[in-house]
Write a structure and sequence with these properties.
Radius of gyration: 19 Å
Order of helices and strands: EHEHEHEHHEHEEHEEEHEEHEHH
Number of strands: 13
Low-confidence stretches: none
Oligomer: single chain
Mean pLDDT: 94
Strand order of the largest sheet: 3-2-1-4-5-6-11
Shape: globular
CATH superfamily: NAD(P)-binding Rossmann-like Domain
CATH architecture: 3-Layer(aba) Sandwich
Number of helices: 11
Distance between the termini: 36 Å
Length: 322
């Protein structure tokens, strides 16, 4: 069985490729950039199962050339994560083109080959910024996308569903929680980084942790769980819905993260500093994952402590100190 993964050298994509390879898939890893040394080392145990193809999802010709690889399933994870306001303002056209037109191009490819299943990797960002409520967000909750990133992710969900209806192939969108873990790094299409990358980076560099608002929270989810959740949806014998949340489904505060890091490294130095913000940042609630659990049979395996332990071990094993 061969699966095409777009954006396969990125943060989520490289972990997806790893998860697929561990389950015996042959993978066509398609990305705008060729794999760097970190990607090659991360995926080295499965290199015989992976074909790296460099190309642009905005280039129809390079997309159509993928037909030669005879894959039967598609995971479309390529994205421009233009969340930072300055990036959104300066590269508005690139965000829309990559996230919407790029998705259209992959769906045109799917129309040609009629895959067994087309999985679109969406985001919990489609629910909007939130109102600082801890209420879990169901797939049926009202969506309030505002930024270009949020809006283009939701638009791509709709386009994906309709293409499948029109052209006779099965589609599903997967809304991710807030991932953290191995392979998160700054790339040309991902400048924003998680707070857990920042904090674990300071830990491995032996720097003190500066903490402001301990109450800030998200549904932080270890990237291996994110990848395995997507894989479970890809491989499910049947699916009952066209969209699934994929997250640990747990509300985790910055204070919780600091506490668990102190459990792992008792002598870590933590400094509380005054907040620079005059208003509290908006927080969305955790994603409700009952649909993923009940229909697909998948639940996250890592709690915060085990996820942080594995992440720090990976950083040490790969000498990743950024």
């Amino acid at each position: 069985m061969t699966t095409l993964v777009t954006g396969g050298t990125g943060f989520v994509g490289s972990n997806l490729v790893k998860a697929l390879a561990e389950k015996g898939h042959e993978i066509i890893c398609f990305d705008y950039v060729s794999p760097d040394n970190l990607v090659k080392e991360f995926l080295k145990p499965w290199e015989q199962q992976i074909t790296f193809v460099q190309g642009d999802i905005l280039n129809r010709e390079s997309i159509e050339l993928l037909v030669r690889y005879k894959f039967t399933k598609i995971i479309h994870a390529a994205v421009f994560t233009g969340i930072l306001p300055e990036v959104e303002q300066m590269r508005s056209d690139s965000i829309v083109e990559t996230n919407v037109i790029g998705t259209r191009n992959l769906l045109e490819l799917a129309k040609l080959i009629v895959p067994e299943r087309f999985v679109y990797v969406s985001s919990g960002a489609v629910y909007g910024e939130g109102d600082n409520s801890k209420e879990a967000l169901k797939e049926s909750s009202v969506l309030l996308p505002r930024s270009l990133y949020e809006s283009t992710k939701y638009a791509s969900e709709l386009v994906t569903r309709r293409y499948g209806e029109l052209h006779g192939f099965e589609t599903v969108s997967v809304r991710l929680g807030s991932p953290y873990g191995p392979m998160e790094r700054v790339t040309g299409h991902r400048a924003n980084q998680s707070i857990l990358k920042e904090l674990t980076g300071k830990v491995v560099r032996g720097e003190p942790l500066e903490v402001r608002d301990r109450s800030y929270a998200r549904d932080y989810t270890y990237i291996t769980d994110i990848a395995l959740g997507i894989l479970a949806i890809l491989e499910a014998p049947s699916i009952s819905f066209d969209v699934y949340n994929n997250s640990a489904g747990v509300w985790i505060t910055l204070g919780d993260i600091i506490d668990r890091l102190e459990d792992l490294i008792p002598n870590i130095e933590v400094i509380t500093v005054p907040s620079k913000e005059t208003t509290v940042s908006a927080m969305r609630g955790p994603l409700d994952v009952s649909r993923l659990r009940d229909d697909i049979g998948y639940t996250a395996k890592y709690d915060l402590l085990s996820g942080l332990r594995e992440y720090l071990k990976w950083r040490d094993d790969f000498s990743y100190y950024e």
